[in-house]
Design a protein that fits this description.
With 524 residues, the chain is of the alpha/beta class. It is built from 18 helices and 16 strands. The strands form four sheets. Strands 1-2-3-4-5-6-7-8 form an eight-stranded parallel barrel, surrounded by ten helices. A three-stranded antiparallel beta sheet has the order 11-12-13, covered by helices on one side. It has a three-stranded antiparallel beta sheet with strand order 14-15-16. The radius of gyration is 28 Å and the shape is elongated.
Length: 524
Amino acid sequence: MTKLVTYDTTLRDGAQTEGVSFSLDDKLLIARRLDLLGIDYIEGGFPQSNAKDEAFFRELKHQPLNHARVTAFGMTRRAGTRASDDAGLAALVAGETPACALVGKSWDFHVTGALRVSLDENLKMIAESVGYLKSRGREVLFDAEHFFDGHKANPDYAMRCLQAAAEAGADWLVLCDTNGGTLPQDIEAAVREVRSRFSVPAGIHTHNDTSLAVAASLAAVAGGATQIQGTINGLGERCGNADLCACIANLQLKLGYDLLPAEHLRRLTETSRFVYEIANLNLVPNQPYVGTSAFAHKGGMHASAMARDTRSYEHVTPDLVGNTRRILISELAGASNVALKARKFNVQDDKALMARLRDRVQQMESEGYQFEAAEASFEMLLRREIGQQTRFFDLDNYHVNIYKDNGDQPVTVATVKISINGRSEHHVAEGDGPVNALDAALRKALLGDYPNLSQMHLADYKVRVINSQAATAARVRVTIESKDQDEHWGSVGVSENIIDASWQALTDSIEYKLLKDREAAGKK
């Protein structure tokens, strides 16, 4: 298998995503997770631009990574300044990283328009900057910014920029589609030309402005590139960078290249979700390979075929990338969907029960329930229907009070009274709103018996009006997403009363957590 090199720029390019701001601790956590995944180069940031990036490199100098080469990002020297006197290059050297990514202009339009220097001066800036970093013992990756636009407009000059870097000792020539507008076939042709002219290995760095960043990266490999740059989940400015998750999976599983050990490839999904969590972004369900819907099957015909052979509707096995198969339950589901979900209870051969469950699901969905994103609620429903429900607690009553003084924020107080094994627990809690207050009061009542609930957190809360023509008497559907250290799960409730709908979803979520913990403990 041909070896390809992986280069991650989540901490630099990915940090330029609108709405994303990594703290120093965030960056260190992500770097260590990328190292665990097996990424070869991790670009940590731009040390001249801010103190946080400087601190990041200092921390990793004292506690180095196990595998990845930490890389600092910077620019060629300023016009009219000697490389040895340039503050940006000095910051790269001071970072003491083994590798430096040095970005330089390769499009004549940018040289004369943005830098406002002569074409010859830009070539000197490239050569002298690369040479200076090499003299200080650094591995140098020359990022030819806007290379493909430059190659289209003035191919001779774009190649001269690469030649200046190569002759000065650059270890990599990284070809950048900075505007993200170059088509894959043009990427491949340009990379082939570069590889025919230079012995220095080539890398590819693409942006996703035409939704082709992954395809363009694969085309570059076909043209001879051996380093793949991107970000986890395709984070990045504007439309983002190439999604390294899809690049790695496609190149390794579809094209047979060697990027990660198989056991590391199985960490791809958890790495994707870890980065989403640290970046405080919602998961993208339909993200290829690593999304929660990537191996989800909803139609009854699909589920029936999947029961016979998973190759029917899956192009790879989900566990290769650490993902899981999901059979969705909805009004489109046939008995096959329900039977597949019921396998864990060994009742899937009871056709009458399966049909009854299917009819029950369809009836509830007609009333406004939706189980696609609420598998915890479906499992609770299934257990009730087959008589395998475990009662961890019973509700005696709850009530919620909201009061507000003139000029003050409203205060919500919830009271919950439940029975646990015949014992009454009665607790009161304040919250930011009625659901938060109910959750807090219920946890107070349960934590003494079920301390693992402290590991469970509310990840998302959504409300949707179902029959809006009923105005203020309309039914609402509440969907809650919860998580612990192992997984995410969803639950749902429907009622004309938003508090009652929330209670349904909340208790299903808690019962699911208690059930899975009990079953996990029983397997040990």
